[in-house]
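Hi V.,

Quick status before I head out on leave. The structure for the redesign project is tokenized and pasted below; the design run finished overnight.
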């Protein structure tokens, strides 16, 4: 162990996570040769291979798994130290990394950030737009604004509003099907992580023989498909507009809530507290566009 450069462990952990030296190099923004050289330095120092080089990728050996655990522990310690130092900073300035979905980023977040800049001009927001859940413990983001039925364990925050849904279609689409039941319409449906939402399960139970003409893992994409008349779509109420007509509400038992969340250590940061309180107040002021009395 005296021959191990602790900085090299970052490369071992990255290769184990990504499954190859090339993928690890892309993640770390270094060359493929650099990753191979750093891993080889440890292997030479301890006299043992850290990975089995298989056609399907790099698989950690027994000693490799041990060093990956050590590297991850060291990484967590550094992240925790950084978080604790930052949490003591009382200045309402600096960067806040906000993760949210594409639909919220398009329809809700711009209004929130406009008000934030006017109130805290020294605060810089880095938007991380993804429909996948990020790891706040690893500082993939500082704050999450996301719809969920149950917040992830060890995240803390505030429930802001019901994330109400409705069924929508373009006026022309409905006019051509005036004599039809909406269960017989063509549909554009959520897929991927969006497809795992309770709304998807409920809708498919209502229209088990639905003619699905397209799927997408983005409600923004589903909305555009509905506007073009490809099919009817389930959408959050905050995405409704004059170019779509509501067909029916969706019961709240099939939807979740909108939450603003952070890691427990970060809530002690004055900057994060101020940011979350502003987001919470802004969302609650927009509740009429997010919630619907029809869904209660």
């Amino acid at each position: 162990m005296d021959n191990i450069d602790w900085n090299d462990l970052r490369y071992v952990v990255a290769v184990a996570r990504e499954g190859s030296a090339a993928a690890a190099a892309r993640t770390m923004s270094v060359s493929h040769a650099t990753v191979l050289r750093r891993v080889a330095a440890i292997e030479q120092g301890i006299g043992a291979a850290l990975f089995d080089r298989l056609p399907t990728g790099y698989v950690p050996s027994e000693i490799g798994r041990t060093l990956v655990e050590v590297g991850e522990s060291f990484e967590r310690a550094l992240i925790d130290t950084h978080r604790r130092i930052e949490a003591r900073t009382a200045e309402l300035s600096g960067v806040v990394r906000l993760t949210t979905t594409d639909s919220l980023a398009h329809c809700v977040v711009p209004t929130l950030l406009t008000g934030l800049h006017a109130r805290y001009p020294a605060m810089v927001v880095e938007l991380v737009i993804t429909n996948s859940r990020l790891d706040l413990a690893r500082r993939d983001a500082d704050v999450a604004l996301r719809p969920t039925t149950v917040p992830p364990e060890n995240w803390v925050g505030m429930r802001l509003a019901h994330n109400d849904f409705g069924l929508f279609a373009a006026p022309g689409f409905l006019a051509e099907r005036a004599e039809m039941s909406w269960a017989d319409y063509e549909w554009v449906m959520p897929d991927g992580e969006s497809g795992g939402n309770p709304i998807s399960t409920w809708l498919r139970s209502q229209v088990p023989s639905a003619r699905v003409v397209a799927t997408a893992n983005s409600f923004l994409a589903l909305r555009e498909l509905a506007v073009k008349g490809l099919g009817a779509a389930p959408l959050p109420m905050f995405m409704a507009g004059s170019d779509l007509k509501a067909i029916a509400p969706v019961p709240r038992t099939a939807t979740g809530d909108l939450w603003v969340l952070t890691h427990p250590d970060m809530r002690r940061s004055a900057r994060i507290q101020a940011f979350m309180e502003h987001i919470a107040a802004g969302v609650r002021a927009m509740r009429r566009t997010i919630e619907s009395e029809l869904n209660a």
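Above is the designed sequence. The chain has three domains: 6-87, 94-163+256-295, 165-254.

G. will cover questions while I'm gone.

Best,
W.
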